[in-house]
Amino acid sequence: MKRMSIRPILIHPDPRLKKVAAPVPDLSDDLRRLAEDMLETMYDAPGIGLAAPQVGVLERLIVADAVKDPDAEPQPMVMFNPEIVLSSDETNVYEEGCLSIPDQYAEVTRPAEVRVRWIDMTGEPREAEFDGLWATVLQHEIDHLNGKLFIDYLSPMKRQMMTRKSLKIKRERARV
Ligand code: NI
Known about the structure:
The protein has about 180 residues and is α+β, with helices and mostly antiparallel strands. It has one domain: Alpha-Beta Complex (Peptide Deformylase), CATH 3.90.45.10. Helix content is about 30%, strand content about 30%. The chain has 3 helices and 7 strands; from the N terminus they run H-E-E-E-E-E-E-E-H-H. It has helices at about 30-45, 130-145, 155-175; strands at about 50, 60-65, 75-85, 90-100, 100-110, 115-120, 125-130. The radius of gyration is 16 Å and the shape is globular. The N and C termini lie far apart (about 35 Å). It binds nickel (II) ion. Nickel (II) ion binds near residues 99, 140 and 144.
C-alpha cells in the first residue's frame, strides 16, 4: 500500500530556507517516501516545483513538474543531488513565484538552457538538457538547496517589500 502525505511548507522568512542542504547519501525507503510526499505536497499546493528545505528537510532533493496544461500527461520529476553542469549564455525571463513566498511574483532572468546531472528514484545517475519552463524551475529549485530564493535576484528594496508581505501572510496563517 502506498502511503503518502502532504507536508507543511515553510514560509519565508525562515532560517531553514537560507541554509545549504547536505548531499543525499545512499537512497533509502525514507528518502523515496519523502520524494513521494513532496510530489503530493507540490501538486496539492498547487506548484510546479518543490525543494526538500521547503518542507524542513535540509537534504539535496527536489521535485518538479513543469507541465502546466491540466489536460496533458503529468511529468513528475524527482532529483536527488541535482547539479547544473552546463548553462547556456542565452537567457530567458520568467515571472517566478515560490510556494514559500505566497502570492508574490517577479521576473527573473536565468540561463535559457541547462544540463543537469542527478540521481533518480531507482538510484541511477542521469543527465539531461532542459529548456523553457523546465530550465527555470530546475534552477529555481536547485537554488533552494543552496539557501537561495528567487527574491535574492531582485533589488534590496523589492526583496524587503516581498519579505515583509510574506511575513505578514506567515503570521496570518499561524493565527488560524
Ligand atoms: Ni521556490
